[in-house]
Design goal:
By secondary structure, this protein is α+β, with helices and mostly antiparallel strands. The protein has one helix and two strands. The chain is 25% helix and 13% strand. A two-stranded antiparallel sheet has the order 1-2.
Length: 63
């Protein structure tokens, strides 16, 4: 199961790429978190503000 060092998923738009979005690293919670992750990615893709702050889930936290 894909996981990241801090145990949080990545849910964000790719830095410097307006047509690439990340939704990965949910570990064993992928099935239960899939619906809200899809909704959040859908909001990003359509230019809407996500209903929660996605800063903690941005891939740039690993820079």
């Amino acid at each position: 199961r894909p996981s990241l060092p801090d145990s949080l998923p990545v849910i964000c738009q790719a830095p410097n790429h307006d047509k690439i979005f990340f939704a990965l690293g949910h570990q064993h919670l992928g099935l239960t978190q899939g619906a809200i992750t899809g909704k959040l990615i859908g909001q990003l893709v359509t230019g809407q503000a996500p209903e929660i702050d996605l800063t903690p889930f941005c891939i740039s936290r690993f820079n």
